[in-house]
Structure formats: structure tokens, C-alpha cells
TrEMBL record:
Species of origin: Hyphococcus aureus
Designated name of the protein: VOC family protein
VOC domain boundaries: 5-124
Native organism taxonomy: Bacteria, Pseudomonadati, Pseudomonadota, Alphaproteobacteria, Parvularculales
SUPFAM superfamilies per UniProt: Glyoxalase/Bleomycin resistance protein/Dihydroxybiphenyl dioxygenase
PROSITE patterns per the UniProt record, alphabetical: VOC (PS51819)
Length: 127
């Protein structure tokens, strides 16, 4: 079992999410955001931080504007080589694992960390 990447996801009021994106971006810390296409106003930003992110396996920072379908939250996502194996291990260790969900080509499991931190671990979905 191997960790392939770490993702940080923050959903916040649009002004706050944009402020963090601006801080991380080219006029701040110098990270380059992915092109998410044209949009009116700020809806989100994704900053890949390694080469694996371009294949959907690596690490990145996600910032999204909160809305009706996306409540404010912070989530840690751990990209692994085999989410099913990690889920089995977590369950054997007594963790309350939810899932899997298959979405966006990924197999995703969830659990709640200390202080209520949502944690997801995921891998490429197998066909």
C-alpha cells in the first residue's frame, strides 16, 4: 500500500475562497492554477503541486466557493494506490469507514478524524 498524493480541499464563502486563491496564485506565493474554463465570478481554483496531479494521482490544493450544493468545510484527501486495501486496513484497526463511492473515475472512502475533520482516501476506480 502506497500514498500517492495529498489534497487539501477548502470550501468557503466566495470572497474568502478567492482571497486564499489569490494568496496562493501567481501574484502571491506563485502557484499556478489549473485552467477550469471560463466562469462568471470566482467559483473555484485548483493548484497542482506535483507532476502526478496532471494525471489525477498527485497532490493539489482545491478552493471552492460555498453554495447550496457545497457547504462550507475543510477536507483532507489522501490519494492511495488501492483505496479498497486501505479501507480494509482501517476497518481492521477499528475505524468507522464509510463508502465506497465511485465518482469522477475514483473510488472514495470517508471517515471522520479528531475534531470532526472529514478525511477521504481514494484511488483510481477499477473497471
Amino acid at each position: 500500500m502506497k500514498v500517492l498524493g495529498i489534497r487539501f480541499c477548502k470550501v468557503a464563502h466566495a470572497d474568502d475562497a478567492k482571497a486564499v486563491a489569490d494568496l496562493l496564485g501567481e501574484n502571491g506565493l506563485g502557484l499556478s492554477p489549473m485552467d477550469l474554463g471560463q466562469s462568471d465570478g470566482f467559483s473555484g481554483a485548483v493548484f497542482p503541486v506535483d507532476e502526478g496531479a496532471k494525471q489525477g494521482l498527485g497532490s493539489w490544493i482545491e478552493l471552492w466557493a460555498a453554495g447550496e450544493q457545497m457547504p462550507e468545510m475543510t477536507m483532507l484527501q489522501i490519494v492511495v494506490d488501492d483505496a479498497d486495501a486501505y479501507a480494509e486496513r482501517a476497518k481492521k484497526n477499528g475505524l468507522d469507514v464509510k463508502g465506497p463511492d465511485d465518482a469522477h473515475g475514483e473510488r472514495i472512502y470517508y471517515l471522520e478524524g479528531a475534531g470532526g475533520l472529514p478525511i477521504a482516501f481514494l484511488s483510481k476506480a477499477t473497471t
